[in-house]
Write a structure and sequence with these properties.
This protein is an alpha+beta fold. 29% of the residues lie in helices and 27% in strands. The chain is built from 14 helices and 25 strands.
Length: 537
């Protein structure tokens, strides 16, 4: 048995969520080790959709330009009846709240290649491939301390010898069959959706009748999803009847019939003749939520923590949101001595958000494809009617990423006038920084930040100093007034942004002071920053 070693953070699983988590930690100077069972990037397509918030996260790890080169902006989602007539359309902008197209299509192996190349450039990150993790043991040192080290036991490919690594924290990014989830005694909460679908990824040079977005065929007998992923890449998803198969004798002919509404395949065609099936797989779409996302210093992220049907394209997006939420908090605890209670806000903030997204996906799934009973037809009719109400489609689109629920780092007091900004994301316009035109986050860096339209008061300065946050007056940013308008709608003179660009606190217009420091200051207090942060009397 080999000797043990010690790492600040061990990440189990080097898919998009695990690698993004490592890159986010590296921005804060935290070293990590990734353990991945596959010897290389998994070559087949899986996730294909990213929203503008995810594009912003990719920007934060320095790969947004590389991702843009392999992504394709989409115009939104159309709901169609069985005859492919439009029921309603959910349009998506090319410039969303986060400064990127609201929907982008991509090939997951391409995204993973971009992320792995970035990982190789970061000395803080270490990747061991061909490694099978066999156990995650907390309190193995006998301390029984919730902040004690975690032992990860693994075997390298082709070896029966067990090796060990100790970590100050372990991130379980190891998918739906997560060993990490089992190790912390977590069980699934069933959110009541289970359907078997066939997913077909194709590369073809044939003419395809397509809309530059996703199409959902709403049918009690043959529901389907279709989308253009790349220049010559397409995806179909079909719910097959019990006993129906696309494999074996007659499978190719059945597939030709299924894709006929979009592309004409000659009867004498065969697989590979200008129509290459890259992957054909059967999936059971599930809706599940882990009952606990953390035990001590072991955390669950991505599919290890939640599973959603794909109808609103938020599966991978939810996992990257997990990484963005957790990593800055973990870095503050490990490097700057913030209290361990800060880490409790990870599940408290992310779990309700994930539950909401899953419920939206389930609602879409049941309303559009939920069986062949009379109730299914009624649900489709109701949805079709609702979607014709002015503003309804825009509201549904916004609701995919609602504000974080109230908690220690999100003080959501209702106001009689103005929008509540706390718990929401700051918009990201283009600004001027050091004489260059850049996106806002590139000017702010990876720390807290204070954005203000008024000269900072003593209390505002004290807050900024305590958190190591730059104070930036909007007059010096040279943006298109996006930020000033946003603040005005929230009746705020200034906002305090977290490192993930969520609004932590506000200075209400005319008050000169942040209002809720007593709630969040104890969680963010560190040995490094000792400036006085006092609540307003």
């Amino acid at each position: 048995m080999s000797a043990t070693s010690r790492k600040p953070v061990v990440i189990i699983g080097a898919g998009p969520v695990g690698v993004t988590a490592a890159l986010l930690l590296a921005r804060h100077g935290v070293r990590s080790l990734l353990l991945e069972r596959h010897p290389d990037i998994y070559p087949l397509p899986r996730a294909v959709v990213a929203d503008d918030e995810i594009r912003r996260i990719l920007q934060s790890v320095g790969v947004h330009e590389e991702f843009a080169a392999v992504a394709r902006p989409a115009r939104g989602l159309r709901l169609l009846d069985p005859r492919r007539r439009v029921i309603t359309e959910f349009p998506r902008s090319l410039h969303g709240h986060h400064g990127f197209p609201q929907t982008s299509m991509f090939d997951q192996p391409e995204l993973e290649r971009v992320l792995r190349e970035a990982l190789a450039r970061r000395p803080e990150c270490e990747l061991w491939s061909g490694v099978e993790v066999v156990s995650v043991t907390q309190d193995a040192d006998g301390s029984h301390a919730p902040t004690g080290p975690v032992q990860v036991t693994f075997r390298r490919d082709g070896s029966d010898e067990e090796e060990h690594v100790w970590a100050d924290a372990v991130l379980g990014c190891d998918g739906a069959g997560s060993l990490t989830r089992d190790a912390i005694g977590t069980v699934w909460e069933d959110l009541h959706f289970e359907e078997t679908w066939r997913v077909i990824d194709v590369r073809t040079s044939l003419p395809v009748r397509t809309w530059e977005g996703a199409e959902q065929i709403c049918s009690p007998t043959r529901p389907a999803t279709f989308m253009r992923v790349g220049e010559d890449r397409y995806r179909w998803e079909f719910r097959l009847a019990e006993g129906e198969h696309l494999d074996g004798p007659g499978g190719w002919e059945r597939l030709r019939e299924l894709v006929a509404p979009w592309v004409d395949l000659p009867r004498d065609a065969s697989p590979g003749d200008d129509f290459e099936v890259i992957r054909q797989a059967q999936y059971t779409f599930l809706a599940r939520l882990a009952d606990r996302w953390r035990r001590g210093r072991v955390f669950l992220l991505g599919d290890a923590a939640h599973l959603t049907p794909p109808f609103v394209g938020q599966g991978l997006c939810a996992g990257l949101r997990d990484a963005h939420n957790l990593t800055w908090k973990l870095a503050r605890v490990l490097q700057q001595g913030a209290p361990d209670a800060l880490l409790d806000t990870y599940e408290r903030e992310r779990k309700p958000h994930a539950r909401h997204v899953i419920r939206v996906a389930v609602a879409v799934g049941w309303a559009m494809t939920g069986g062949q009973d009379r109730g299914a037809a009624l649900r489709r009719a109701v949805v079709g009617t609702l979607c014709r109400i002015p503003g309804a489609t825009a509201a549904v689109s916004r609701d995919l990423s609602p504000a974080l629920t109230a908690g220690p780092l999100v003080r959501r007091r209702p106001r009689l006038t103005g929008r509540v900004l706390t718990g929401t994301f700051c918009p990201q316009p283009w600004v001027l920084h050091d004489g260059r035109r850049v996106r806002l986050d590139d000017a702010l860096g990876n720390s807290f930040a204070v954005l203000t339209t008024v000269p900072p008061t003593a209390q505002m300065t004290a807050v900024a100093t305590a958190l190591g946050a730059p104070t930036i007056h909007l007059d010096g940013l040279g943006d298109d007034h996006t930020l000033a308008t946003w603040l005005a709608r929230g009746r705020a003179d200034a906002v305090l942004l977290r490192p993930d660009r969520v609004v932590l606190d506000t200075v209400p217009a005319g008050t000169g002071a942040f209002t809720d420091t007593a709630a969040w200051a104890p969680l963010l207090h560190t040995a490094r920053h000792t400036a006085d942060v006092r609540p307003v009397p």
